C-alpha cells in the first residue's frame, strides 16, 4: 500500500480519500475545510496543516481541486507540491482543468523529477461516494500502470486515453454529452407535463429503452421532484463548457449543439442557479417557457 498526500477534500475528494483509507493506503489530507479533515481522521486518515506536511513523505500525491488556478498554485507554487514532495513521487490530478494546464504541470513535473497523470473523473458525488467513478487518464503507460491501485479504490472504469492532457480532452467531451443530456431530459419533462402526462412514469419508460442513460437512472426522480441539491454545481459545469469551447476553437471545429448547451448553462448561472446541481437546467427551460 502507498503513502498518499491528498489535497482537496470537497464533495468529490472527501469520499475518494475515504475509499483510499479503507483500501489500506496511508492517507494524509489537506484542505481548507476543517470538517472535511475531521471526517478524514474519523475514517482513519491523517490531517495536515499545510501542503508541505501533506506531501512530505508521499509516494503518491493526489489533487482534486475546482479549477486550473488552484491546481497551478497548489502544485507549482513556492509552497506547493513540487517544492515539498519527495523526488520521484507520482502526482495524480483528478481535477477537471484546461488541457494546456495539465500539459504545463506535466512539463514542470518532468523538469523537477516528478511523474504526472491528468485523471479527471465522471460520476459526480454519487459516483465518488460509491467508489464507481469513470476515470480518463493522460500520461505515460508506465505511470498509468503504477496508479492502478489508486484507480481501483475510487473507480469502476479507468482507461489510459493518451499522453498528457488527453484525459482533460476526453473529460471535456464527457461534459458536453452530460450537459446536452440534462438539457434534453429537462425538455422531455416539460413536454410531458405540459400535455398532462405523468413525467415520472414517462421517464421510467424512457429509462428502459434506447433513450436510457446514467442520468435518467440517477436523476429522473429528483428532477421531476424539482430537487436540485448539488452533486455537481452549475458553476462548475459552466467552467467545463468554457473548456469545451476553447478546445473546439483550438481544433478549428464547430460544435453547434455544444454552443447551445453552454448558453443554457450560462443562463442558469446568470439566473442565480450556479450553486444548484446541473440538473437544474430544468429551471432554465421552465423559465424560457414562462412556467
From TrEMBL:
Gene3D superfamilies: N-(1-d-carboxylethyl)-l-norvaline Dehydrogenase, domain 2, NAD(P)-binding Rossmann-like Domain. Residues 165-284 form the 3-hydroxyisobutyrate dehydrogenase-like NAD-binding domain. It is an enzyme of class 1 (oxidoreductase). It comes from the Bacteria. Residues 3-162 form the 6-phosphogluconate dehydrogenase NADP-binding domain. The active site is at residue 171. Keywords: NAD, Oxidoreductase. Its EC number is 1.1.1.60. GO terms for biological process: glyoxylate metabolic process; organic acid catabolic process. SUPFAM superfamilies: 6-phosphogluconate dehydrogenase C-terminal domain-like, NAD(P)-binding Rossmann-fold domains. The keyword Secreted does not apply. GO terms for molecular function: 2-hydroxy-3-oxopropionate reductase activity; NAD binding; NADP binding. Belongs to the HIBADH-related family. This is 2-hydroxy-3-oxopropionate reductase. The lineage of its organism: Bacteria, Bacillati, Actinomycetota, Actinomycetes, Mycobacteriales.
Amino acid at each position: 500500500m502507498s503513502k498518499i498526500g491528498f489535497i482537496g477534500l470537497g464533495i468529490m475528494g472527501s469520499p475518494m480519500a475515504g475509499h483510499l483509507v479503507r483500501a489500506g493506503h496511508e492517507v494524509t489530507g489537506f484542505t481548507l475545510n476543517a470538517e472535511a479533515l475531521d471526517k478524514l481522521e474519523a475514517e482513519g486518515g491523517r490531517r495536515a496543516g499545510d501542503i508541505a506536511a501533506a506531501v512530505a513523505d508521499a509516494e503518491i500525491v493526489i489533487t482534486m481541486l475546482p479549477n486550473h488556478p488552484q491546481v497551478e498554485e497548489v502544485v507549482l507554487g513556492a509552497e506547493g507540491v513540487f517544492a515539498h514532495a519527495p523526488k520521484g513521487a507520482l502526482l495524480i490530478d483528478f481535477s477537471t482543468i484546461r488541457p494546456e494546464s495539465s500539459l504545463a504541470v506535466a512539463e514542470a513535473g518532468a523538469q523537477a523529477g516528478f511523474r504526472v497523470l491528468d485523471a479527471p473523473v465522471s460520476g459526480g458525488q454519487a459516483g465518488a461516494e460509491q467508489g464507481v467513478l469513470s476515470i480518463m487518464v493522460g500520461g505515460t503507460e508506465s505511470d498509468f500502470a503504477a496508479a492502478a491501485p489508486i484507480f481501483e479504490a475510487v473507480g469502476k472504469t479507468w482507461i489510459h486515453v493518451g499522453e498528457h492532457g488527453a484525459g482533460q480532452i476526453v473529460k471535456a467531451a464527457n461534459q458536453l454529452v452530460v450537459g446536452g443530456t440534462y438539457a434534453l431530459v429537462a425538455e422531455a419533462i416539460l413536454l410531458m407535463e405540459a400535455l398532462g402526462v405523468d413525467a415520472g412514469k414517462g421517464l421510467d419508460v424512457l429509462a428502459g429503452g434506447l433513450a436510457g442513460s446514467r442520468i435518467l437512472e440517477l436523476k429522473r426522480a429528483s428532477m421531476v421532484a424539482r430537487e436540485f441539491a448539488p452533486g455537481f454545481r452549475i458553476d462548475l459545469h459552466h467552467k467545463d463548457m468554457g473548456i469545451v469551447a476553447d478546445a473546439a476553437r483550438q481544433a478549428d471545429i464547430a460544435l453547434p449543439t455544444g454552443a447551445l448547451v453552454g448558453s443554457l448553462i450560462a443562463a442558469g448561472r446568470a439566473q442565480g442557479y450556479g450553486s444548484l446541481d446541473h440538473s437544474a437546467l430544468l429551471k432554465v427551460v421552465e423559465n424560457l417557457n414562462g412556467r
